[in-house]
C-alpha cells in the first residue's frame, strides 16, 4: 500500500538503549492511522511525536505493569493521507490484518469521525487526542474516549474577553461586531457554533460569517470584507494551514481589527514564520507549559516541555504545540487504564478507561458517559512580543490582555 509506514521497528530500536528492566518487558501493540501526508500532515507529525515521546518516557519509568507482568507500548502507524475514507480503511486493516486490539486516534475531528464507527463496530477501545468536535460525542459510542476539551469551547472565551474590554471602555457588549471565517469541517463548524452562541448571548452583531476556501490557501476575499465592515473581533479556524494563511494575509493586507483569535497558532509556528504579523493575536490552546499541572511520569507541564524539546530538537526554538502534549496524555491514559484493569482484555480495559480520574502534566482527565473529557478547561494565549502568554481564563492568566491589537 502507498504511503505505508510501520514504526513498530523503531520501538525495538529504542528498547536497545533502554534500561535492563525495560528490556525484560513484553509488548502491547497499539494502532494508529494518522496524517503523515496531505493537508493535516503538520499536525500528524506533532501527534506522532507526542505518542512516541510518551512511549519512551513510560518505558524509561519501568513500563506498564499488568498483573505481575511488565509491558512496553509499540505502535503500528499507517498514513491516512488526511482522507477520511482512507482512515476508515486503514482502521479495518489494523484490526483485521494486524490484529490490533487498542487504538490511538488520528489527527482531526473529521478523521476521527471516519474511524470511530470502525472501532465501535469491532469494540476496540480508542483513546484519541486530536478530535474535538462535539458531534463525536452524541452518537452513543462506548469505545471512544477523548482527552481534549470539545471544540465549541476553543474560541468562545474570546467573545467573553471582547465583552469585558467593551465594558472597560464604557461601551455595551452589544456594540461589538464579530467576523467569523472557518473551514467547512466538523471541528471548525463547532467553533463557529460556540462563537455564535456566545455572541448572541451578549447581543453582538455577527457581520461576517464565511467558510474558508477548501484548500485553505487564500482568504483575501474575506479579509477585503473585514476591511469594509470593520468588525471588532475576527475569529478564524482552519487548522495549521488556515492559521498560516490567516496570519500571512492579515499582515500583507494590513488588517486592523482590535481582536483577532485563531486556532492552531503554535502548530503553524506563526511567530517563527510571520514575525511581527503574529503579535497580539489570540490563540486557543488545550495546554500551556506555564500551567501548574503535573504527574509522576512527566513531571510538571514545564518539565514536559523541557524534556520534549531535548528529545525533539527541531522544536527547540518554538512553542511546543498542544497537539504534541495531548497525544502524550492519550498514551498515559492507556498506561493508567491497563494497570487498573490488571488484564489485556479489551472489554475490561474499556471499562477501566471509562472510570479514569487522572491528573497529568496536561491537566485533569475524566470522561463523561459520552467519552469526552470533562476535567480540563481551554486556555487562551496571546502572542506578546513573540511569546505565547496565557490571558484567559483570568484565574490562571499569567499576563494582561493587550487590547486593542496594534496595527502591524
Model description:
With 408 residues, this protein is of the alpha/beta class. It has two domains: 8-150 and 321-366, 3-Layer(aba) Sandwich (Rossmann fold); 155-262 and 265-288 and 379-396, 3-Layer(aba) Sandwich (Rossmann fold), CATH 3.40.50. 40% of the residues lie in helices and 20% in strands. The protein is built from 14 helices and 17 strands. Strand 12 and strand 13 (299-300) form a beta hairpin. Helix 3 crosses helix 13 (322-341), helix 6 packs parallel to helix 7 and helix 13 packs across helix 14. The longest helix is centred in the N-terminal third of the chain and has 20 residues, at 41-60. The chain starts with 7 loop residues before the first helix and ends in a 16-residue tail after the last strand.
Largest sheet: 7 strands, mixed
Radius of gyration: 21 Å
Q: Tell me the CATH topology of the largest domain.
A: Rossmann fold
Number of DSSP helices?
A: 14
The CATH homologous superfamily of the largest domain corresponds to Response regulator
What count of structural domains?
A: 2
Strands of the largest sheet, in order across it?
A: 8-7-9-10-11-16-17
Instruction: Determine and state the CATH class of the largest domain.
Output: Alpha Beta
Residues in β-strands, percent: 15-25%
User: What structural category arises from helix and sheet content?
Assistant: alpha/beta
pLDDT under 50 segments (min length 5)?
1-20
Mean pLDDT: 93
Count of β-strands: 17
Q: Helical proportion?
A: 25-40%
Amino acid at each position: 500500500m502507498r504511503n505505508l509506514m510501520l514504526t513498530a521497528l523503531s520501538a525495538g530500536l529504542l528498547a536497545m538503549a533502554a534500561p535492563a528492566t525495560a528490556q525484560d518487558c513484553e509488548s502491547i501493540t497499539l494502532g494508529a492511522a494518522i496524517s503523515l501526508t496531505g493537508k493535516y500532515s503538520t499536525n500528524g507529525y506533532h501527534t506522532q511525536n507526542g505518542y512516541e515521546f510518551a512511549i519512551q518516557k513510560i518505558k524509561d519509568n519501568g513500563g506498564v505493569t499488568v498483573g505481575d507482568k511488565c509491558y512496553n507500548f509499540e505502535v503500528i502507524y499507517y498514513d491516512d493521507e488526511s482522507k477520511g475514507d482512507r482512515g476508515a480503511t486503514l482502521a479495518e486493516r489494523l484490526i483485521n490484518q494486524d490484529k490490533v486490539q487498542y487504538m490511538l486516534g488520528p489527527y482531526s475531528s473529521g478523521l476521527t469521525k471516519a474511524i470511530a464507527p470502525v472501532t465501535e463496530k469491532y469494540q476496540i477501545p480508542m483513546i484519541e487526542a486530536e478530535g474535538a468536535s462535539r458531534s463525536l460525542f452524541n452518537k452513543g459510542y462506548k469505545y471512544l474516549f477523548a482527552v481534549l476539551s470539545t471544540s465549541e469551547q476553543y474560541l468562545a472565551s474570546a467573545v467573553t474577553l471582547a465583552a469585558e474590554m467593551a465594558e472597560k471602555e464604557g461601551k455595551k457588549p452589544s456594540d461589538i461586531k464579530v467576523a467569523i471565517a472557518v473551514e467547512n469541517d466538523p471541528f471548525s463548524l463547532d467553533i463557529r457554533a460556540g462563537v455564535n452562541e456566545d455572541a448572541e448571548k451578549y447581543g453582538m452583531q455577527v457581520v461576517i460569517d464565511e467558510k474558508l476556501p477548501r484548500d485553505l490557501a487564500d482568504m483575501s476575499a474575506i479579509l477585503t470584507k473585514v476591511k469594509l465592515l470593520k468588525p471588532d473581533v475576527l475569529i478564524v479556524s482552519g487548522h495549521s494551514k488556515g492559521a498560516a494563511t490567516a496570519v500571512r494575509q492579515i499582515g500583507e493586507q494590513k488588517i486592523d481589527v482590535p481582536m483577532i483569535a485563531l486556532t492552531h497558532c503554535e502548530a503553524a509556528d506563526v511567530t517563527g514564520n510571520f514575525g511581527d504579523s503574529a503579535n497580539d493575536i489570540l490563540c486557543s490552546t488545550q495546554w500551556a507549559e506555564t500551567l501548574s499541572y503535573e504527574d509522576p511520569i512527566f513531571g510538571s507541564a514545564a518539565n514536559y516541555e523541557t524534556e520534549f524539546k531535548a528529545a525533539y530538537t527541531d522544536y527547540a526554538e518554538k512553542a511546543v504545540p498542544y497537539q504534541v502534549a495531548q497525544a502524550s496524555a492519550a498514551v498515559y491514559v492507556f498506561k493508567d487504564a491497563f494497570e487498573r484493569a490488571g488484564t489485556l482484555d479489551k472489554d475490561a480495559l474499556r471499562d477501566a478507561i471509562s472510570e479514569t480520574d487522572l491528573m497529568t502534566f496536561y491537566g485533569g482527565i475524566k470522561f463523561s458517559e459520552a467519552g469526552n473529557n470533562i476535567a480540563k478547561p481551554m486556555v487562551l494565549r496571546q502572542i506578546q512580543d513573540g511569546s505565547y502568554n496565557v490571558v484567559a481564563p483570568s484565574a490562571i492568566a499569567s499576563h494582561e490582555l493587550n487590547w486593542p491589537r496594534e496595527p502591524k
